Amino acid sequence: MKKFLIISIILSVFTSCANYGGGELTGVQERLPWSSTNPFGMVYVPIGSFHMGPNDQDVPWAVTAQSKVVSVSPFWMDETEITNNEYRQFVYWVRDSIAYRLLGESIDEYLISEDAFGEEIDPPLINWEQEINWHGEEENDILQEMYHPENERFYRRKNIDTRKLKFDYFWIDYKQAAQKIAVDKQSRRRYNYETGQYDGSVYNEKGEKVPVKDRSSFIMHDHVYVYPDTLCWISDFSYSYNEPMSNMYFWHSAYDTYPVVGVTWKQASAFCIWRTTLMNSASAKNGDAFVQDYRLPTEAQWEYAARGGLDLSMYPWGGYYTRNDQGCFLANFKPLRGNYADDGGLNTVEVAVYEPNDFGLYDMAGNVAEWTLNAFDESAYSYTHDLNPDYSYNALPDDPPVMKRKVVRGGSWKDIGYFLQNGTRTYEYQDTAKSYIGFRCVRAFMGRDFEFGGKSHVY
Predict the structure, then answer these.
(1) Above 80 in pLDDT, residue 314?
(2) What's the whole-number mean pLDDT along residues 383-406?
(3) CA–CA separation, 149 vs 65, rounded Å?
(4) Residue-wise pLDDT tens digits, 100-159
(5) Which of 306, 334, 256, 294 is nearest to 407 (CA)?
């Protein structure tokens, strides 16, 4: 009896300290604050269903898509393609992170902590205008000199050696982690709840098949060189004078609001991971809960967003034609044979020049085509789910090229009108960079959203 009384007192103390609602079911009270404010530069795309696939014209014998009704969860999407200046923030962050690591304790003398208006910069930036002594606490033979050698510098300026701007990152392979395996003629998950051990094997980022040790086996580590391929303007077009674009397009301030190009699918994916880290770090400083990951849109998300709520429409603007009633072209593409200029742009143009669709998204047709998250397979629509369809495949280094195809959507400044249609799908290889392919990010919507009476309601 005495023992029971002591246990009762201890439990009552713990209950009062934890504030469990006086015996009522009230949920856990002490939670991190969370804000549902609109992400900067992103547009809300509501929940909905639509006919995914071609609605009218198709290239004869293409057979790369079929019409299929699917449903998509709500999400946030960048209102424009990622611009040169936005991608440059990523490049500069990688550059500064390398400098922070190499300079060690001597970092303070190279920092800029205030801007031109006397406002505090947090975190401080590296002052790249001054000569930097790269022999800090420890000497690094590979990255001890961030600039090009004197004899390799163009325009007699101190040029950062972009070949050294490497971004190391990781991601979690949820698909392999969730995959079921056959054990004793039974199908179950990799984790054995009876023994507390993991069974089976997993493919790591190198394509090696290794046994699953613990949860860390599903964390994939990789790296990517982040600087865009500025020579893509020349390599993409034989017998064409595009040297001015290669020399100036990415770094010149005149092109700050133009869509970034020359970025591979892997670079675009790494950008999304970096952007997630950037936002989560800021949220942690403010004591807020972490946000959902940024990533490339799935093919279904991209097409649903491009349609702007107009189901069965051929183009994002809803009509059957590429001109408006005034005879003006509605996007930046190749409108006539050999004529790139009649739509107002010879190659890329600034983002958000043409009118947005009904969701408020710009350039969902033309300007630059866009990477999506999904791998390309001609028959993917036949076996993907009708709820948030997704066919993703992390190509291994030794996989054949056909396994490294990623879906590209939207058409570009060099494409004819067919590729601007909402339902048209094509592909490019994940390790290639083109002067006509860019990207934009999406982020999952967290909150309450439901469709009732034909209208979307958000709380």
Answers:
(1) yes
(2) 91
(3) 51
(4) 777 765 677 777 777 767 777 766 777 777 766 665 445 544 455 677 777 777 765 567
(5) 306
Q: What are residue 170's phi and psi, to 5 degrees?
A: -145, 160
Classify domain 45-83+226-452 at the CATH superfamily level.
paralog of FGE (formylglycine-generating enzyme) (3.90.1580.10)
- Tokens of residue 392, six digits: 């993703």
**Tokens in use for 372?**
């999506």
Task: Report which DSSP code applies to 104.
Answer: G
Structure tokens at 58: 């198709």
Fill in the amino acid letter for 132.
I
Contact (CB, 8 A) for 190 and 179: yes
- List C-alpha distances in Å: 294 to 39, 90, 442: 11, 14, 6
Helices (H), 286-407: 299-307, 380-383
What is the average per-residue pLDDT within 330-358? 92
Collapsing DSSP states into helix, strand and coil, what is residue 451? strand
- 277 alpha-carbon distance from chain centroid: 12
Three-state DSSP at 304 gives helix
- Cα–Cα distance between 173 and 405 in angstroms, integer? 19
Q: Determine if residue 200 is left, alpha or beta; phi over 0 gives left, psi from -120 to 50 gives alpha, anything else beta.
A: left
Of the candidates 317, 11, 55, the residue with the CA atom closest to the CA atom of residue 3: 11
Q: Which residues pair with 438 in a beta bridge?
A: 370
H/E stretch holding 438 reads strand 437-438
pLDDT average, residue stretch 194-222? 86
SS3 79: coil
> What b-and-e string marks burial along 80-116, b requiring 16 or more CB atoms within 10 Å of the CB?
bbbbbebbbebbbbbbbebbeebbeeebeebbeeeee
**Which of 133-137, 205-209, 212-216, 306-310 shows the highest mean pLDDT?**
306-310
Cβ atoms 422, 305 nearer than 8 A: no
* In the chain, where the domains are located: 45-83+226-452, 169-221
Q: Find out whether 84 and 271 touch, Cβ atoms under 8 Å.
A: no
From residue 146, how far is each of 92, 104, 123, 267 by CA, in Å?
13, 15, 21, 21
18, with CB counted inside 10 A (0-12, 13-18, 19+), is: exposed
